[in-house]
Amino acid sequence: MKKVLLSIMFAGVASFASAQKSEINEAKKTWNLLGITSGKSLATDLKTLNGGLARTDVAIANEKSKVMAEAWVYRALFASRIALIDSVNLNNAKAKQKIADEAITKAEELDKKGSEKENIAQAKTNVENAVRNRAIYAYRKKDFKTALEAFNEITAKNPNDTSMYVNAGVTAKEIQNYPEVIKNFKKATELNYPESKALYSEMINITMDKLKDSVAGLKLIQEAAVKYPEDAYFIGLETDLYIKSGDISKSQEMLKKLIVKDPKNAVYQYLMGETYYKQALAIQNKRNALDVKKKKEFDAMTAQMNKFIDESMPYFKKALEIDPKNVSALENLKIIYMFKNDTPNYEDMKKKLDAIKQ
């Protein structure tokens, strides 16, 4: 299945909001001037932003101005902007983000008429972008614990950002935090992430191989099979799970129902053939390990193996009848005909496979 990779997107700097009484007016002026003076150097920009933020410190300390939405709006803008651009001092960026978050909450509470809606939205965007960039920087430095914390913070702020759930899952996998991988990938699939099929594959493998939870693994397999009914991979996984657990009848019962529902589905026909074919292969492996002196047991195993092979063939043939380019069915039939010394049919299967590969 397709490998799930980190989605890297650095956020750019959004345009400044236009200006809308003493300290607040000065803060506005400083903010507006940033549109002209910013970009000279990080140190210069941070000095200007910290100056503007200091103006809001005074404003929110005043009994009259602390109840004005503008005081908190510009506080949110300055603090969020510092959090976004200060890539040198992580602690400072996080501290300013905390100030911005608090200011945004207060601004929304006081902005009854919604006149500061755009500026508040800008501050929120700055914060989201600051956290996103911090996560990417940390991931690139292989500080996966910090990166995971940041990605989880992003999804908490924006619960519909599927790519960030995937990034959180990919990062969690780096530090073998498998429950976090499952949690984040699962959320992305629920939000219809475009590559959900690959996420299901990852979740199933981790649940079965790392967490050793076959019950949860089966649930994921069944969920994926319903979501992707035309994909042989997930239905095949389910049948394999039943076969490995010795519950062949459960696998065949499931496939029979699917065949009745959709008799012209080549995948279902092929997989039914596999339930018999894999039993034959399992017996063959046991037979090969048998003491050569045990002829009676050898012959009994051979008879049982041939029985399963013969039972698999009609389903492989039906799969080919429906889909002449079903490579898996062709491969299995080629092996079976070679085993049976049926040269004409072996050559026929080989010829068809060669044609498809060309």
Give the tags.
0% strand; 16 helices; 358 residues; single chain
Tell me what the structure shows:
Helix content is 76%, strand content 0%. The longest helix has 28 residues, at 295-322. The protein is mainly alpha-helical and 358 residues long. Helix 1 runs parallel beside helix 3 and helix 3 runs parallel beside helix 5 (117-140). The relative contact order is 0.06. The two termini are 23 Å apart.
List the helices and strands and how they pair.
Blueprint: H1 22-37, H2 42-61, H3 69-85, H4 90-110, H5 117-140, H6 144-157, H7 162-174, H8 178-190, H9 196-210, H10 214-227, H11 232-244, H12 248-261, H13 266-288, H14 295-322, H15 327-339, H16 343-357
Helix pairs in contact: 1-2, 1-3, 2-3, 3-4, 3-5, 4-5, 5-6, 6-7, 7-8, 8-9, 9-10, 10-11, 11-12, 11-13, 12-13, 13-14, 14-15, 15-16
Indicate the mean pLDDT: 88
The proportion of residues in beta strands is under 5%
Global structural class: mainly alpha
Q: Which stretches are low in confidence, meaning pLDDT under 50 for 5 or more residues running? A: 13-20
| Alpha plus pi helix count | 16
Shape: elongated
Order of helices and strands: HHHHHHHHHHHHHHHH
Fraction of residues in helix: over 70%
The end-to-end span amounts to: 23 Å
How many whole angstroms does the radius of gyration measure? 31 Å
